[in-house]
Amino acid sequence: MTPVYIIIGIVLLVILIIVVWYISQVNKLNRAVVKIDEASSGIDVALTKRYDTLTKMMDVVKSYAKHEKETLFEVINLRKDMTISEKNEANHKMDENLKKINVVAENYPELRSSDTYVTLQKSIADVEEHMQAARRLYNSNVSIYNQLLVTYPTSSIAKNKGMTKKDFFEADEIKREDVKIDL
Amino acid sequence: MDKSIEEIERLRVKAANIIKTGSIISVSLSVLIAILTIISGNFFGIAFAFALLIIGLVITMIVSSKPSKEFKMAYKNTFVLKSLKSVFDDLEYNPERGFDYNVIKNTGMMYMGDRYSSNDYIKGKYKNINVEQADVHIEEEVTTTDSDGNTTTHYETLFMGQWMIFDFNKSFSANLQVCGKGFYNAKRGNWGSSLKYKKVEMEDAEFNKMFRVYAVDAHEAFYILTPSLMGRIKKLSNSIKGSLLLCFIDNKLHIGISNNKDAFEASVFKKLDESKIIDSIASEIKLITNFVDELNLDNDLFRKGV
Protein backbone atom coordinates (compact mmCIF):
# COMPACT_ATOMS: atom_id res chain seq x y z
CA MET A 1 0.00 0.00 0.00
CA THR A 2 1.41 3.34 -1.05
CA PRO A 3 1.66 6.30 1.33
CA VAL A 4 -0.91 8.17 -0.80
CA TYR A 5 -3.58 5.54 -0.08
CA ILE A 6 -2.69 5.61 3.61
CA ILE A 7 -3.11 9.41 3.70
CA ILE A 8 -6.42 9.20 1.77
CA GLY A 9 -7.56 6.48 4.17
CA ILE A 10 -6.69 8.59 7.23
CA VAL A 11 -8.43 11.67 5.74
CA LEU A 12 -11.56 9.61 4.97
CA LEU A 13 -11.51 8.17 8.49
CA VAL A 14 -11.22 11.64 10.01
CA ILE A 15 -14.07 12.90 7.79
CA LEU A 16 -16.18 9.88 8.81
CA ILE A 17 -15.51 10.55 12.50
CA ILE A 18 -16.46 14.22 12.07
CA VAL A 19 -19.67 13.32 10.19
CA VAL A 20 -20.68 10.72 12.83
CA TRP A 21 -19.91 13.19 15.62
CA TYR A 22 -21.87 15.96 13.84
CA ILE A 23 -24.89 13.69 13.35
CA SER A 24 -24.77 12.60 17.00
CA GLN A 25 -24.69 16.24 18.17
CA VAL A 26 -27.56 17.20 15.86
CA ASN A 27 -29.54 14.22 17.15
CA LYS A 28 -28.74 15.27 20.71
CA LEU A 29 -30.16 18.74 20.03
CA ASN A 30 -33.18 17.31 18.22
CA ARG A 31 -33.86 14.91 21.10
CA ALA A 32 -33.71 17.85 23.51
CA VAL A 33 -36.26 19.73 21.37
CA VAL A 34 -38.54 16.67 21.23
CA LYS A 35 -38.35 16.32 25.02
CA ILE A 36 -39.32 19.99 25.40
CA ASP A 37 -42.26 19.51 23.02
CA GLU A 38 -43.39 16.44 24.98
CA ALA A 39 -43.10 18.35 28.24
CA SER A 40 -45.00 21.25 26.68
CA SER A 41 -47.83 18.83 25.82
CA GLY A 42 -47.71 17.75 29.45
CA ILE A 43 -48.33 21.36 30.45
CA ASP A 44 -51.33 21.46 28.07
CA VAL A 45 -52.78 18.35 29.71
CA ALA A 46 -52.18 19.74 33.20
CA LEU A 47 -53.68 23.11 32.26
CA THR A 48 -56.78 21.43 30.84
CA LYS A 49 -57.18 19.30 33.99
CA ARG A 50 -56.78 22.40 36.14
CA TYR A 51 -59.22 24.35 34.01
CA ASP A 52 -61.86 21.58 34.21
CA THR A 53 -61.55 21.27 37.97
CA LEU A 54 -61.66 25.03 38.46
CA THR A 55 -64.75 25.27 36.25
CA LYS A 56 -66.46 22.66 38.41
CA MET A 57 -65.45 24.60 41.54
CA MET A 58 -66.71 27.88 40.06
CA ASP A 59 -70.05 26.26 39.25
CA VAL A 60 -70.36 24.97 42.82
CA VAL A 61 -69.36 28.36 44.26
CA LYS A 62 -71.81 30.22 41.99
CA SER A 63 -74.65 27.95 43.10
CA TYR A 64 -73.97 28.95 46.72
CA ALA A 65 -73.13 32.62 46.10
CA LYS A 66 -75.91 33.66 43.75
CA HIS A 67 -76.08 37.13 45.32
CA GLU A 68 -72.37 37.94 44.98
CA LYS A 69 -72.58 39.63 41.63
CA GLU A 70 -69.24 41.37 42.06
CA THR A 71 -67.40 38.07 41.90
CA LEU A 72 -66.24 38.04 38.32
CA PHE A 73 -64.02 35.21 37.30
CA GLU A 74 -61.30 35.72 34.71
CA VAL A 75 -62.24 34.42 31.28
CA ILE A 76 -59.77 31.76 30.22
CA ASN A 77 -59.47 30.47 26.68
CA LEU A 78 -57.44 27.35 26.22
CA ARG A 79 -56.57 26.48 22.65
CA LYS A 80 -54.12 24.36 20.75
CA ASP A 81 -50.63 25.66 19.85
CA MET A 82 -50.46 28.18 22.68
CA THR A 83 -47.04 29.67 23.24
CA ILE A 84 -45.34 29.27 26.60
CA SER A 85 -46.11 32.88 27.52
CA GLU A 86 -49.80 32.30 26.66
CA LYS A 87 -49.78 29.17 28.79
CA ASN A 88 -48.17 31.20 31.57
CA GLU A 89 -50.91 33.78 31.24
CA ALA A 90 -53.70 31.16 31.30
CA ASN A 91 -52.12 29.59 34.37
CA HIS A 92 -51.92 32.99 36.06
CA LYS A 93 -55.63 33.63 35.35
CA MET A 94 -56.44 30.27 36.91
CA ASP A 95 -54.44 31.32 40.00
CA GLU A 96 -56.56 34.46 40.20
CA ASN A 97 -59.80 32.49 39.85
CA LEU A 98 -58.70 30.04 42.54
CA LYS A 99 -57.98 32.95 44.89
CA LYS A 100 -61.47 34.37 44.19
CA ILE A 101 -63.07 30.98 44.81
CA ASN A 102 -61.31 30.74 48.18
CA VAL A 103 -62.37 34.28 49.11
CA VAL A 104 -66.02 33.56 48.28
CA ALA A 105 -65.90 30.19 50.03
CA GLU A 106 -64.70 31.93 53.20
CA ASN A 107 -68.14 33.58 53.49
CA TYR A 108 -70.08 30.33 53.09
CA PRO A 109 -69.26 27.79 55.82
CA GLU A 110 -71.91 25.39 54.47
CA LEU A 111 -70.15 25.50 51.08
CA ARG A 112 -66.76 24.74 52.66
CA SER A 113 -68.19 21.80 54.54
CA SER A 114 -70.13 20.35 51.61
CA ASP A 115 -68.89 16.99 50.34
CA THR A 116 -68.67 18.22 46.76
CA TYR A 117 -66.51 21.21 47.70
CA VAL A 118 -64.21 19.15 49.94
CA THR A 119 -63.78 16.57 47.17
CA LEU A 120 -63.06 19.32 44.65
CA GLN A 121 -60.49 20.85 47.01
CA LYS A 122 -58.68 17.49 47.15
CA SER A 123 -58.96 17.22 43.42
CA ILE A 124 -57.55 20.71 42.86
CA ALA A 125 -54.61 19.86 45.15
CA ASP A 126 -53.83 16.86 42.98
CA VAL A 127 -54.28 18.90 39.79
CA GLU A 128 -51.87 21.53 41.17
CA GLU A 129 -49.34 18.78 41.81
CA HIS A 130 -49.65 17.60 38.20
CA MET A 131 -49.28 21.22 37.04
CA GLN A 132 -46.11 21.63 39.07
CA ALA A 133 -44.74 18.31 37.82
CA ALA A 134 -45.38 19.38 34.21
CA ARG A 135 -43.74 22.76 34.86
CA ARG A 136 -40.67 21.24 36.54
CA LEU A 137 -40.24 18.64 33.80
CA TYR A 138 -40.57 21.30 31.10
CA ASN A 139 -38.13 23.66 32.81
CA SER A 140 -35.67 20.84 33.44
CA ASN A 141 -35.71 19.95 29.72
CA VAL A 142 -35.42 23.62 28.73
CA SER A 143 -32.47 24.00 31.08
CA ILE A 144 -30.66 21.02 29.48
CA TYR A 145 -31.41 22.37 25.99
CA ASN A 146 -30.30 25.93 26.83
CA GLN A 147 -27.08 24.57 28.31
CA LEU A 148 -26.37 22.75 25.05
CA LEU A 149 -26.89 26.02 23.19
CA VAL A 150 -24.17 27.80 25.13
CA THR A 151 -21.71 24.89 25.28
CA TYR A 152 -19.07 24.76 22.56
CA PRO A 153 -19.01 23.05 20.04
CA THR A 154 -22.74 22.18 20.24
CA SER A 155 -23.45 25.91 20.28
CA SER A 156 -21.98 26.28 16.75
CA ILE A 157 -24.16 23.50 15.37
CA ALA A 158 -27.23 24.98 17.06
CA LYS A 159 -26.40 28.41 15.63
CA ASN A 160 -26.09 26.96 12.12
CA LYS A 161 -29.46 25.27 12.49
CA GLY A 162 -31.03 28.50 13.74
CA MET A 163 -31.84 27.11 17.17
CA THR A 164 -32.49 29.68 19.87
CA LYS A 165 -32.95 29.61 23.64
CA LYS A 166 -36.36 28.58 24.97
CA ASP A 167 -38.31 30.40 27.66
CA PHE A 168 -38.97 28.79 31.01
CA PHE A 169 -42.49 28.20 32.26
CA GLU A 170 -42.56 30.50 35.26
CA ALA A 171 -44.61 29.87 38.36
CA ASP A 172 -45.87 32.21 41.02
CA GLU A 173 -43.62 32.30 44.07
CA ILE A 174 -46.34 30.71 46.17
CA LYS A 175 -46.44 27.70 43.86
CA ARG A 176 -42.74 26.99 44.02
CA GLU A 177 -43.48 25.28 47.34
CA ASP A 178 -45.41 22.06 47.56
CA VAL A 179 -49.13 22.62 47.48
CA LYS A 180 -50.62 23.48 50.85
CA ILE A 181 -54.37 23.84 50.96
CA ASP A 182 -56.20 24.09 54.23
CA LEU A 183 -59.30 21.93 54.29
CA MET B 1 -47.29 -18.71 72.97
CA ASP B 2 -46.65 -15.81 75.36
CA LYS B 3 -43.91 -16.91 77.77
CA SER B 4 -42.37 -15.25 80.79
CA ILE B 5 -38.85 -13.84 80.56
CA GLU B 6 -37.64 -16.56 82.97
CA GLU B 7 -38.97 -19.31 80.68
CA ILE B 8 -37.35 -17.71 77.63
CA GLU B 9 -34.09 -17.26 79.55
CA ARG B 10 -34.17 -20.97 80.42
CA LEU B 11 -34.58 -21.82 76.72
CA ARG B 12 -31.67 -19.50 75.87
CA VAL B 13 -29.39 -21.04 78.51
CA LYS B 14 -30.30 -24.55 77.35
CA ALA B 15 -29.42 -23.72 73.74
CA ALA B 16 -26.26 -21.85 74.72
CA ASN B 17 -25.10 -24.73 76.95
CA ILE B 18 -25.54 -27.28 74.18
CA ILE B 19 -23.49 -25.13 71.81
CA LYS B 20 -20.79 -24.41 74.38
CA THR B 21 -20.55 -28.07 75.53
CA GLY B 22 -20.51 -29.42 71.98
CA SER B 23 -17.85 -26.93 70.93
CA ILE B 24 -15.64 -27.60 73.95
CA ILE B 25 -15.85 -31.39 73.48
CA SER B 26 -15.12 -31.09 69.74
CA VAL B 27 -12.15 -28.78 70.22
CA SER B 28 -10.74 -30.76 73.20
CA LEU B 29 -10.96 -34.10 71.41
CA SER B 30 -9.39 -32.69 68.26
CA VAL B 31 -6.54 -31.08 70.15
CA LEU B 32 -5.95 -34.28 72.14
CA ILE B 33 -5.86 -36.41 69.02
CA ALA B 34 -3.61 -33.88 67.30
CA ILE B 35 -1.14 -33.92 70.21
CA LEU B 36 -1.14 -37.75 70.41
CA THR B 37 -0.55 -38.13 66.69
CA ILE B 38 2.27 -35.58 66.73
CA ILE B 39 3.92 -37.45 69.65
CA SER B 40 3.55 -40.78 67.82
CA GLY B 41 5.01 -39.19 64.67
CA ASN B 42 1.92 -39.89 62.56
CA PHE B 43 1.29 -36.52 61.01
CA PHE B 44 -1.71 -37.78 59.01
CA GLY B 45 -3.52 -37.81 62.35
CA ILE B 46 -3.63 -34.01 62.24
CA ALA B 47 -5.94 -34.19 59.24
CA PHE B 48 -8.05 -36.70 61.15
CA ALA B 49 -8.16 -34.32 64.15
CA PHE B 50 -9.26 -31.46 61.89
CA ALA B 51 -11.97 -33.62 60.32
CA LEU B 52 -13.12 -34.62 63.80
CA LEU B 53 -13.36 -30.95 64.79
CA ILE B 54 -15.54 -30.16 61.79
CA ILE B 55 -17.78 -33.20 62.38
CA GLY B 56 -18.07 -32.30 66.07
CA LEU B 57 -19.11 -28.72 65.30
CA VAL B 58 -21.63 -29.86 62.67
CA ILE B 59 -23.18 -32.34 65.15
CA THR B 60 -23.29 -29.53 67.74
CA MET B 61 -25.11 -27.27 65.28
CA ILE B 62 -27.62 -30.00 64.43
CA VAL B 63 -28.26 -30.88 68.08
CA SER B 64 -28.58 -27.23 69.12
CA SER B 65 -30.77 -26.15 66.19
CA LYS B 66 -34.04 -27.25 67.81
CA PRO B 67 -33.47 -25.57 71.22
CA SER B 68 -32.05 -22.48 69.45
CA LYS B 69 -35.14 -22.25 67.29
CA GLU B 70 -37.38 -22.76 70.32
CA PHE B 71 -35.65 -19.86 72.06
CA LYS B 72 -35.81 -17.57 69.00
CA MET B 73 -39.48 -18.32 68.39
CA ALA B 74 -40.33 -17.73 72.04
CA TYR B 75 -38.37 -14.45 71.94
CA LYS B 76 -40.14 -13.26 68.79
CA ASN B 77 -43.61 -14.40 69.81
CA THR B 78 -43.24 -12.65 73.14
CA PHE B 79 -41.04 -9.55 72.96
CA VAL B 80 -41.26 -8.71 69.26
CA LEU B 81 -44.98 -9.41 69.03
CA LYS B 82 -45.70 -7.34 72.14
CA SER B 83 -43.72 -4.36 70.79
CA LEU B 84 -45.31 -4.62 67.35
CA LYS B 85 -48.80 -4.74 68.87
CA SER B 86 -48.11 -1.48 70.67
CA VAL B 87 -47.37 0.28 67.36
CA PHE B 88 -49.47 -1.36 64.64
CA ASP B 89 -53.21 -1.92 64.37
CA ASP B 90 -54.67 -5.07 62.78
CA LEU B 91 -51.31 -6.73 63.27
CA GLU B 92 -50.29 -9.97 61.61
CA TYR B 93 -46.84 -11.28 62.50
CA ASN B 94 -45.27 -14.50 61.32
CA PRO B 95 -41.56 -14.98 62.10
CA GLU B 96 -41.29 -18.00 59.83
CA ARG B 97 -42.75 -16.65 56.61
CA GLY B 98 -41.88 -13.64 54.50
CA PHE B 99 -42.73 -12.04 51.18
CA ASP B 100 -43.53 -14.29 48.28
CA TYR B 101 -40.70 -14.38 45.71
CA ASN B 102 -42.93 -12.74 43.08
CA VAL B 103 -43.71 -9.71 45.28
CA ILE B 104 -40.07 -8.65 45.04
CA LYS B 105 -39.59 -9.90 41.47
CA ASN B 106 -42.62 -7.99 40.16
CA THR B 107 -41.17 -4.66 41.26
CA GLY B 108 -38.46 -5.16 38.63
CA MET B 109 -36.01 -3.57 41.03
CA MET B 110 -33.92 -6.61 41.77
CA TYR B 111 -32.05 -9.26 39.89
CA MET B 112 -33.41 -12.24 41.81
CA GLY B 113 -30.26 -14.37 41.73
CA ASP B 114 -30.36 -18.10 42.47
CA ARG B 115 -31.39 -18.34 46.11
CA TYR B 116 -34.20 -16.42 47.84
CA SER B 117 -35.38 -16.45 51.42
CA SER B 118 -37.64 -14.19 53.47
CA ASN B 119 -38.92 -14.23 57.06
CA ASP B 120 -40.27 -12.08 59.89
CA TYR B 121 -43.37 -11.01 57.99
CA ILE B 122 -45.22 -8.07 59.53
CA LYS B 123 -48.51 -6.68 58.30
CA GLY B 124 -50.45 -3.95 60.02
CA LYS B 125 -51.67 -0.39 60.00
CA TYR B 126 -49.70 2.58 61.25
CA LYS B 127 -51.50 5.95 61.22
CA ASN B 128 -54.12 4.18 59.11
CA ILE B 129 -51.51 3.37 56.44
CA ASN B 130 -51.14 -0.27 55.39
CA VAL B 131 -47.63 -1.45 56.13
CA GLU B 132 -45.93 -4.74 55.27
CA GLN B 133 -42.34 -5.65 55.96
CA ALA B 134 -40.12 -8.71 55.99
CA ASP B 135 -36.45 -9.63 56.01
CA VAL B 136 -35.28 -10.56 52.54
CA HIS B 137 -32.11 -12.33 51.45
CA ILE B 138 -31.23 -12.74 47.76
CA GLU B 139 -28.09 -14.54 46.70
CA GLU B 140 -26.39 -15.39 43.45
CA GLU B 141 -24.48 -18.60 42.77
CA VAL B 142 -20.94 -17.85 41.67
CA THR B 143 -18.69 -20.54 40.19
CA THR B 144 -14.96 -19.95 39.95
CA THR B 145 -12.29 -22.07 38.29
CA ASP B 146 -8.65 -21.97 39.40
CA SER B 147 -5.56 -22.46 37.25
CA ASP B 148 -5.67 -26.24 37.85
CA GLY B 149 -9.20 -26.41 36.47
CA ASN B 150 -10.85 -27.01 39.85
CA THR B 151 -14.25 -25.35 40.13
CA THR B 152 -15.73 -24.09 43.35
CA THR B 153 -19.20 -22.70 43.90
CA HIS B 154 -20.27 -20.18 46.49
CA TYR B 155 -23.12 -17.73 47.05
CA GLU B 156 -22.76 -13.96 46.96
CA THR B 157 -25.34 -11.73 48.58
CA LEU B 158 -27.19 -9.37 46.24
CA PHE B 159 -29.60 -8.06 48.85
CA MET B 160 -29.88 -8.66 52.58
CA GLY B 161 -32.03 -6.48 54.74
CA GLN B 162 -35.56 -5.20 55.16
CA TRP B 163 -38.17 -4.87 52.45
CA MET B 164 -41.19 -2.69 53.22
CA ILE B 165 -44.40 -1.93 51.38
CA PHE B 166 -46.53 1.12 52.19
CA ASP B 167 -49.72 2.63 50.83
CA PHE B 168 -48.66 5.70 48.86
CA ASN B 169 -50.63 8.93 49.18
CA LYS B 170 -50.85 9.72 45.48
CA SER B 171 -52.50 7.85 42.65
CA PHE B 172 -50.18 7.26 39.74
CA SER B 173 -50.35 5.29 36.55
CA ALA B 174 -46.71 4.59 35.67
CA ASN B 175 -43.99 2.85 37.63
CA LEU B 176 -40.99 4.63 39.09
CA GLN B 177 -37.73 3.26 40.46
CA VAL B 178 -35.28 5.15 42.64
CA CYS B 179 -31.98 3.34 43.18
CA GLY B 180 -29.51 4.45 45.83
CA LYS B 181 -25.77 3.89 45.91
CA GLY B 182 -24.89 0.21 45.89
CA PHE B 183 -27.59 -0.55 43.36
CA TYR B 184 -26.21 1.55 40.51
CA ASN B 185 -24.45 -1.38 38.91
CA ALA B 186 -26.80 -4.09 40.12
CA LYS B 187 -28.21 -6.33 37.44
CA ARG B 188 -31.61 -4.78 36.98
CA GLY B 189 -34.61 -7.04 37.14
CA ASN B 190 -36.59 -5.63 34.24
CA TRP B 191 -34.78 -7.26 31.36
CA GLY B 192 -37.31 -8.43 28.81
CA SER B 193 -40.12 -6.64 30.60
CA SER B 194 -42.77 -4.89 28.50
CA LEU B 195 -42.27 -1.80 30.70
CA LYS B 196 -39.64 0.47 29.23
CA TYR B 197 -37.89 2.36 31.96
CA LYS B 198 -35.89 5.43 31.03
CA LYS B 199 -33.36 7.23 33.18
CA VAL B 200 -34.75 10.54 34.37
CA GLU B 201 -32.64 13.48 35.53
CA MET B 202 -34.36 15.38 38.31
CA GLU B 203 -33.70 19.11 38.80
CA ASP B 204 -32.07 18.42 42.19
CA ALA B 205 -28.36 17.84 41.43
CA GLU B 206 -27.66 16.43 44.91
CA PHE B 207 -30.54 13.96 44.57
CA ASN B 208 -29.20 12.88 41.16
CA LYS B 209 -25.83 12.21 42.79
CA MET B 210 -27.37 10.08 45.53
CA PHE B 211 -29.95 8.22 43.45
CA ARG B 212 -30.65 7.09 39.93
CA VAL B 213 -34.24 7.51 38.83
CA TYR B 214 -35.85 5.27 36.23
CA ALA B 215 -39.41 5.89 35.08
CA VAL B 216 -41.81 4.66 32.45
CA ASP B 217 -43.16 8.23 32.19
CA ALA B 218 -40.98 11.24 33.10
CA HIS B 219 -44.05 13.30 34.10
CA GLU B 220 -44.98 10.71 36.72
CA ALA B 221 -41.42 10.88 38.10
CA PHE B 222 -41.77 14.63 38.61
CA TYR B 223 -45.32 14.20 39.94
CA ILE B 224 -44.28 11.65 42.58
CA LEU B 225 -40.87 13.09 43.43
CA THR B 226 -41.71 16.61 44.51
CA PRO B 227 -38.80 18.81 45.69
CA SER B 228 -40.06 18.32 49.23
CA LEU B 229 -40.22 14.51 48.93
CA MET B 230 -36.74 14.40 47.38
CA GLY B 231 -35.44 16.42 50.32
CA ARG B 232 -37.03 14.03 52.80
CA ILE B 233 -35.70 10.96 50.95
CA LYS B 234 -32.19 12.46 51.03
CA LYS B 235 -32.51 13.08 54.77
CA LEU B 236 -33.74 9.53 55.41
CA SER B 237 -31.05 8.04 53.22
CA ASN B 238 -28.36 9.88 55.17
CA SER B 239 -29.75 8.59 58.45
CA ILE B 240 -29.82 4.94 57.36
CA LYS B 241 -26.91 2.53 57.33
CA GLY B 242 -27.01 0.60 54.07
CA SER B 243 -28.20 1.06 50.53
CA LEU B 244 -31.69 2.31 49.85
CA LEU B 245 -34.00 1.64 46.97
CA LEU B 246 -37.54 2.83 46.40
CA CYS B 247 -40.08 1.60 43.92
CA PHE B 248 -43.46 3.20 43.25
CA ILE B 249 -45.71 0.60 41.72
CA ASP B 250 -49.51 -0.02 41.77
CA ASN B 251 -50.05 2.96 44.11
CA LYS B 252 -47.70 1.34 46.63
CA LEU B 253 -44.28 2.38 47.79
CA HIS B 254 -41.73 -0.43 48.10
CA ILE B 255 -38.62 0.36 50.10
CA GLY B 256 -35.61 -1.93 50.30
CA ILE B 257 -32.79 -1.36 52.78
CA SER B 258 -29.80 -3.55 52.08
CA ASN B 259 -27.88 -3.36 55.35
CA ASN B 260 -26.78 -7.01 55.77
CA LYS B 261 -28.97 -7.19 58.86
CA ASP B 262 -31.55 -9.70 59.97
CA ALA B 263 -34.10 -7.76 62.01
CA PHE B 264 -35.66 -8.90 65.30
CA GLU B 265 -33.02 -11.56 65.99
CA ALA B 266 -31.72 -12.48 69.45
CA SER B 267 -28.38 -14.05 70.36
CA VAL B 268 -28.37 -17.21 72.48
CA PHE B 269 -25.13 -16.03 74.11
CA LYS B 270 -26.49 -12.76 75.53
CA LYS B 271 -28.33 -12.77 78.83
CA LEU B 272 -31.84 -11.42 78.39
CA ASP B 273 -32.32 -7.89 79.65
CA GLU B 274 -35.92 -6.83 79.11
CA SER B 275 -35.30 -3.08 78.93
CA LYS B 276 -32.46 -3.50 76.42
CA ILE B 277 -34.56 -5.91 74.37
CA ILE B 278 -37.49 -3.49 74.26
CA ASP B 279 -35.17 -0.63 73.22
CA SER B 280 -33.53 -2.71 70.51
CA ILE B 281 -36.86 -3.89 69.07
CA ALA B 282 -38.28 -0.35 69.29
CA SER B 283 -35.38 1.01 67.21
CA GLU B 284 -36.01 -1.65 64.57
CA ILE B 285 -39.71 -0.81 64.49
CA LYS B 286 -38.81 2.87 64.29
CA LEU B 287 -36.97 2.13 61.06
CA ILE B 288 -40.34 1.15 59.56
CA THR B 289 -42.52 3.88 61.05
CA ASN B 290 -39.94 6.56 60.22
CA PHE B 291 -40.81 6.19 56.55
CA VAL B 292 -44.48 6.93 57.22
CA ASP B 293 -43.61 9.84 59.53
CA GLU B 294 -40.79 11.42 57.54
CA LEU B 295 -42.33 10.94 54.08
CA ASN B 296 -45.75 12.13 55.36
CA LEU B 297 -47.39 9.05 53.88
CA ASP B 298 -50.42 9.59 56.11
CA ASN B 299 -51.16 12.89 54.36
CA ASP B 300 -54.13 11.97 52.18
CA LEU B 301 -54.46 15.41 50.55
CA PHE B 302 -53.72 14.00 47.13
CA ARG B 303 -55.98 10.99 47.27
CA LYS B 304 -58.47 11.82 44.59
CA GLY B 305 -62.11 11.91 45.18
CA VAL B 306 -63.41 13.11 41.82
Provide a quick synopsis of the model.
Chain A has 183 residues and is mainly alpha-helical. Chain A is built from 5 helices and no strands.
Account of the protein in words:
The complex is a heterodimer of chains A (183) and B (306). With 183 residues, chain A is mainly alpha-helical. Chain A contains five helices and no strands. The radius of gyration of chain A is 25 Å and the shape is rod-shaped. The termini of chain A are far apart. With 306 residues, chain B is α+β, with helices and mostly antiparallel strands. Chain B folds into two domains: 1-87; 90-306, no CATH class. Helices cover 43% and strands 26% of the residues of chain B. In chain B, helix 1 runs antiparallel to helix 2. The longest helix of chain B has 44 residues, at 44-87. Chain B is globular. Chain B starts with a helix and ends in a 12-residue tail after the last helix.
Q: Note the total helix count of chain A.
A: 5
Distance between the termini of chain A: 83 Å
CATH architecture of chain A: Up-down Bundle
Percent of residues in β-strands of chain A: under 5%
Secondary-structure class of chain B: alpha+beta
- What's the total number of strands of chain A? 0
Order of helices and strands of chain B: HHEHEEEEEHEHHEEH
